[in-house]
Amino acid sequence: MLTGKRILLIIGGGIAAYKSLELIRRLAERGASVAPVLTRAAEEFVTPLSVSALAGVKVHRDLFDLTDEAEMGHIQLSRSADLIVVAPATADLMAKMAQGLAGDLASTLLLATDTPVLLAPAMNVRMWDHPATRRNRATLAGDGVAFVGPNEGDMACGEFGPGRMSEPMEIVAAIEAQFAHGPLSGKRVLVTSGPTHEPIDPVRYIANRSSGAQGTAVARALADLGAHVVFVTGPASVPPPAGVEVIAVQSAAEMAQAVQAALPVDAGVFAAAVADWRVAQASDRKLKKSKDGLPVLEFAENPDILATVAQMGAGRPRLVVGFAAETHDVEAHATAKRLRKGCDWIVANDVSPATGIMGGSENAVTLISDAGSEVWPRMSKDAVARQLAERIAAALNG
Ligand code: CTP
Question: Which atom of ligand 1 sits closest to the CA of residue 324?
Fold first, then answer.
């Protein structure tokens, strides 16, 4: 969560500057306020108008902007921030920082402050590897400047190697880590949530009654303890929590793919109500009424996402938590399910209609582990989530 955090974002002049627009959106979603600064060169890649429209505030561009000097001043601008992020950090900006130059607004802001600085470098691979840049990197690291990336990959200039700017969500995670506190800070946790929709044709699907409320509450509670939460959600009826990385999916197959892409994680919590079957041959055209009778749907089994992750060898999360929604013999079914799926814990609950739990705001769960079963009193889904998050933190730190 970045609620109330003030981030001064300096956008340097490189092709990766376009990614800073996405970064502003992601930071705003998490409750941060972003004060953007564009270098002259950056204006060749993104316009001040698009940056200010996304940030919802004026863009700072010029050291000698007299209005700014009267209203706030460049010194004030850099000191009022909780963190300065430079993305993309070009070779030129890094060299200026390492030398303590202050010839323009961006470099002056960086020199006039003791606010922590995070750089997301982006440059040609030869520039990154050049002895001059290596020296500057070492100098900056010695000054306490933090880095995220660069990544290795194909570059806009046609070459391959380290130099690509980190993706916006990687930068967000690095920013969160700068502010992180709480027992799960530095931990990456996956949460699946919500129902899945299994298509029949482009307009029809098979769904279930899951609202996603319990999974959403768990994701929020984990983020509140400082975790970086990857939240893979089907089409739920409650909105996703703030402060988590949201990956929206429709079907079980898409959810399975998103989960694989999110690994490795320290812990996985599988709260989604995943459809057990999909329509084997979903039609890419709308099924029409026909004189020949009713359509016959054939089903195929969906992958068991929880079991796949729980039973993977190398790279298995340290803690895998499943949910079991049962309507009768809750403890016996859930205990068998834990062993069958190979997860560490099962959070079991009784969803028979008389309990009012499915779609309601309360839950009564039994936590099943290899130590046996523990019945929790009936409480709000938020309270179940907080208690579960505390237990996960204790397990990961134990
Ligand atoms: N689950 C999953 N992928 C599936 C089915 C279930 O990841 N294809 C996960 C759920 O997110 C939950 C757990 O498995 O954490 C148990 O789900 P549940 O529907 O209760 O189990 P089933 O495997 O469907 O067992 P049964 O039909 O016997 O109740």
Answer: 20
Is the beta carbon of 210 within 6 A of some atom in ligand 1?
no
Give the pLDDT band of residue 2 (cuts 50, 70, 90): confident
261 beta partners: none
Domain boundary among 159, 179, 199: 179
How many domains does the chain fold into?
2
Q: Can you say whether the dihedral through the CA atoms of 263, 267, 273, 278 is positive or negative?
A: positive
Same domain, 163 and 233: no
Q: Are 389 and 184 in contact (CB under 8 A)?
A: yes
Q: Above 60 in pLDDT, residue 66? A: no
Question: Phi-psi bin for 31: left (phi > 0), alpha (psi -120 to 50), beta?
Answer: left
Residue among 196, 306, 357, 367 to mutate when testing ligand 1 (max atoms within 8 A of CB)? 306
pLDDT digits (tens, 9 = 90+) for 285-340: 999 888 888 989 999 999 999 999 999 999 999 999 999 999 899 999 999 999 99
Most confident of 103-107, 237-241, 245-249, 308-312: 308-312
The Å distance, Cα 250 to ligand 1 centre, comes to 16
Asked if the peptide bond before residue 36 counts as cis, ω within 30 degrees of 0, the response is no
Please report, for the domain that includes residue 330, its CATH number.
Answer: 3.40.50.10300
Same domain, 100 and 146: yes
343 catalytic, yes or no?
A: no
293 in helix, strand or coil? Answer: coil
CATH number of residue 58's parent domain? 3.40.50.1950
pLDDT for 221 beyond 80 = yes
The pairing of beta strand 198-201 with beta strand 379-380: unpaired
- pTM of the shown model: 0.68
* 127 closest CA partner among 166, 170, 159: 159
125 in Cβ contact with 90 (< 8 Å): no
Catalytic hit among 72, 75, 138, 157: 157
238 in the same domain as 304:
yes
Q: Which domain holds residue 61?
A: 1-179
Whether 220 has a pLDDT exceeding 70, the answer reads yes
Half-sphere exposure of 127 (CA within 13 A, CB side): 18
Domain co-membership, 143 together with 200: no
Please list the residues that pair with 77 across neighbouring strands. Answer: none
**CB contact set of 241 (below 8 Å; sequence gap of 6+):** 216, 217, 219, 220, 223, 231
